[in-house]
Specification:
This protein has one domain. About 70% of the residues lie in helices and about 0% in strands. It is built from 10 helices and no strands.
Length: about 180
Protein backbone atom coordinates (compact mmCIF):
# COMPACT_ATOMS: atom_id res chain seq x y z
CA UNK A 1 0.00 0.00 0.00
CA UNK A 2 1.47 3.31 -1.07
CA UNK A 3 -0.47 5.71 1.13
CA UNK A 4 0.19 5.74 4.84
CA UNK A 5 -1.78 7.00 7.79
CA UNK A 6 -0.48 8.21 11.12
CA UNK A 7 -0.71 5.62 13.86
CA UNK A 8 0.01 1.95 14.18
CA UNK A 9 -1.78 -0.65 12.08
CA UNK A 10 -1.99 -4.40 12.33
CA UNK A 11 -0.87 -6.09 9.06
CA UNK A 12 -3.27 -9.03 9.35
CA UNK A 13 -6.16 -6.71 10.09
CA UNK A 14 -5.19 -4.45 7.19
CA UNK A 15 -5.19 -7.45 4.83
CA UNK A 16 -8.59 -8.52 6.16
CA UNK A 17 -10.09 -5.07 5.59
CA UNK A 18 -8.45 -4.86 2.18
CA UNK A 19 -10.22 -8.06 1.16
CA UNK A 20 -13.56 -6.74 2.50
CA UNK A 21 -13.21 -3.32 0.87
CA UNK A 22 -12.15 -4.72 -2.50
CA UNK A 23 -15.02 -7.21 -2.41
CA UNK A 24 -17.48 -4.43 -1.52
CA UNK A 25 -16.02 -2.11 -4.16
CA UNK A 26 -16.35 -4.85 -6.77
CA UNK A 27 -20.01 -5.38 -5.80
CA UNK A 28 -20.64 -1.64 -6.13
CA UNK A 29 -18.65 -1.17 -9.36
CA UNK A 30 -15.91 0.96 -7.76
CA UNK A 31 -12.58 0.48 -9.53
CA UNK A 32 -10.23 2.79 -7.61
CA UNK A 33 -7.53 0.55 -6.07
CA UNK A 34 -5.74 3.49 -4.41
CA UNK A 35 -8.90 4.49 -2.53
CA UNK A 36 -9.53 0.83 -1.58
CA UNK A 37 -6.02 0.55 -0.15
CA UNK A 38 -6.38 3.84 1.70
CA UNK A 39 -9.72 2.89 3.28
CA UNK A 40 -8.39 -0.56 4.25
CA UNK A 41 -5.47 1.05 6.04
CA UNK A 42 -7.79 3.58 7.66
CA UNK A 43 -10.05 0.81 9.04
CA UNK A 44 -7.13 -1.16 10.45
CA UNK A 45 -5.64 2.02 11.90
CA UNK A 46 -8.91 3.03 13.60
CA UNK A 47 -9.38 -0.42 15.09
CA UNK A 48 -7.08 1.00 17.78
CA UNK A 49 -8.98 3.64 19.73
CA UNK A 50 -5.86 5.70 20.37
CA UNK A 51 -5.57 6.23 16.60
CA UNK A 52 -9.22 7.24 16.25
CA UNK A 53 -8.74 9.93 18.90
CA UNK A 54 -5.10 10.84 18.27
CA UNK A 55 -5.68 14.56 17.63
CA UNK A 56 -4.98 16.74 20.66
CA UNK A 57 -5.59 20.42 21.24
CA UNK A 58 -2.84 22.92 22.05
CA UNK A 59 -3.16 22.02 25.75
CA UNK A 60 -2.70 18.30 25.00
CA UNK A 61 -6.36 17.34 25.61
CA UNK A 62 -7.67 14.52 23.42
CA UNK A 63 -10.32 15.68 20.91
CA UNK A 64 -13.19 13.21 20.62
CA UNK A 65 -15.75 14.87 18.35
CA UNK A 66 -15.67 16.17 14.81
CA UNK A 67 -16.75 19.60 16.07
CA UNK A 68 -13.78 19.78 18.48
CA UNK A 69 -11.46 18.76 15.65
CA UNK A 70 -12.95 21.38 13.31
CA UNK A 71 -12.43 24.09 15.91
CA UNK A 72 -8.82 22.97 16.42
CA UNK A 73 -8.21 22.98 12.65
CA UNK A 74 -9.53 26.55 12.48
CA UNK A 75 -7.27 27.60 15.37
CA UNK A 76 -4.31 26.09 13.53
CA UNK A 77 -5.23 27.98 10.37
CA UNK A 78 -5.57 31.29 12.23
CA UNK A 79 -2.20 30.75 13.92
CA UNK A 80 -0.69 29.91 10.51
CA UNK A 81 0.28 26.36 11.43
CA UNK A 82 -0.47 24.99 7.96
CA UNK A 83 0.97 21.50 8.45
CA UNK A 84 -0.98 21.04 11.68
CA UNK A 85 -4.16 22.29 10.03
CA UNK A 86 -3.66 19.85 7.13
CA UNK A 87 -3.02 16.97 9.54
CA UNK A 88 -6.18 17.77 11.50
CA UNK A 89 -8.33 18.19 8.38
CA UNK A 90 -7.07 14.86 7.02
CA UNK A 91 -7.95 13.23 10.32
CA UNK A 92 -11.39 14.87 10.22
CA UNK A 93 -12.01 13.37 6.76
CA UNK A 94 -10.79 9.97 7.95
CA UNK A 95 -12.76 10.14 11.21
CA UNK A 96 -15.99 11.14 9.52
CA UNK A 97 -15.58 8.57 6.73
CA UNK A 98 -15.13 5.89 9.38
CA UNK A 99 -17.91 7.04 11.70
CA UNK A 100 -20.50 7.73 8.99
CA UNK A 101 -19.72 4.46 7.21
CA UNK A 102 -19.38 2.06 10.12
CA UNK A 103 -21.62 3.74 12.71
CA UNK A 104 -24.15 5.31 10.34
CA UNK A 105 -27.19 4.46 12.48
CA UNK A 106 -25.67 6.22 15.50
CA UNK A 107 -24.75 9.26 13.38
CA UNK A 108 -28.29 9.42 11.94
CA UNK A 109 -29.81 9.04 15.40
CA UNK A 110 -27.82 12.09 16.53
CA UNK A 111 -28.96 13.97 13.37
CA UNK A 112 -25.31 14.53 12.35
CA UNK A 113 -25.30 12.77 8.98
CA UNK A 114 -25.75 15.81 6.70
CA UNK A 115 -23.19 17.83 8.69
CA UNK A 116 -20.74 14.92 8.69
CA UNK A 117 -21.06 14.33 4.96
CA UNK A 118 -20.44 18.00 4.18
CA UNK A 119 -17.54 18.43 6.62
CA UNK A 120 -15.86 15.16 5.57
CA UNK A 121 -16.03 16.20 1.93
CA UNK A 122 -14.64 19.66 2.72
CA UNK A 123 -11.86 18.25 4.89
CA UNK A 124 -10.54 16.02 2.10
CA UNK A 125 -10.93 18.88 -0.40
CA UNK A 126 -8.74 21.10 1.79
CA UNK A 127 -6.12 18.35 2.11
CA UNK A 128 -6.12 17.87 -1.67
CA UNK A 129 -5.61 21.59 -2.23
CA UNK A 130 -2.79 21.63 0.31
CA UNK A 131 -1.03 18.73 -1.44
CA UNK A 132 -1.45 20.42 -4.80
CA UNK A 133 -0.25 23.83 -3.57
CA UNK A 134 2.88 22.40 -1.96
CA UNK A 135 3.59 19.87 -4.74
CA UNK A 136 3.11 16.88 -2.45
CA UNK A 137 1.89 13.50 -3.65
CA UNK A 138 -1.66 12.52 -2.76
CA UNK A 139 -3.64 15.35 -4.28
CA UNK A 140 -5.53 13.03 -6.63
CA UNK A 141 -6.42 10.60 -3.82
CA UNK A 142 -7.82 13.29 -1.53
CA UNK A 143 -9.60 14.98 -4.41
CA UNK A 144 -11.28 11.66 -5.25
CA UNK A 145 -12.22 11.08 -1.60
CA UNK A 146 -13.73 14.57 -1.49
CA UNK A 147 -15.56 14.38 -4.82
CA UNK A 148 -17.19 11.03 -4.02
CA UNK A 149 -17.21 11.24 -0.22
CA UNK A 150 -20.84 10.21 0.24
CA UNK A 151 -20.34 7.30 -2.15
CA UNK A 152 -17.36 5.99 -0.13
CA UNK A 153 -19.30 6.40 3.11
CA UNK A 154 -22.05 4.34 1.48
CA UNK A 155 -19.51 1.71 0.39
CA UNK A 156 -18.28 1.38 3.98
CA UNK A 157 -21.86 1.09 5.20
CA UNK A 158 -22.50 -1.57 2.55
CA UNK A 159 -19.41 -3.46 3.72
CA UNK A 160 -20.55 -3.32 7.32
CA UNK A 161 -24.09 -4.47 6.54
CA UNK A 162 -22.84 -7.24 4.26
CA UNK A 163 -20.00 -8.68 6.31
CA UNK A 164 -20.61 -7.81 9.98
CA UNK A 165 -23.38 -9.02 12.26
CA UNK A 166 -25.89 -6.49 13.52
CA UNK A 167 -26.63 -7.04 17.19
CA UNK A 168 -29.67 -4.79 17.29
CA UNK A 169 -30.04 -1.74 19.51
CA UNK A 170 -26.90 -2.37 21.60
CA UNK A 171 -23.82 -0.21 21.67
CA UNK A 172 -22.50 -0.19 18.07
CA UNK A 173 -18.95 0.58 19.22
CA UNK A 174 -18.85 -2.44 21.54
CA UNK A 175 -20.37 -4.73 18.90
CA UNK A 176 -17.80 -3.68 16.29
CA UNK A 177 -14.94 -3.89 18.80
CA UNK A 178 -16.03 -7.37 19.87
CA UNK A 179 -16.03 -8.62 16.28
CA UNK A 180 -12.57 -7.17 15.60
CA UNK A 181 -10.87 -8.57 18.71
CA UNK A 182 -10.48 -12.00 17.12
CA UNK A 183 -8.77 -10.54 14.05
CA UNK A 184 -5.89 -8.57 15.60
Amino acid sequence: MKTSLSGTTIPRLTAFFNWLIRRSFRDLGIKDAEVADYISLLLANFARTENLYRIRDFQGRRLETAVEMLLEANLSWYSEQWDREKEIRKHIGDYILFMAGIFREWIEKQSYLDLYLEEGRKAYQTVSQYHKAFYRPGSRLYSELSKNFEFYVGALYYMKKTFFKDHGEGDPFLDFDHQLRGLG
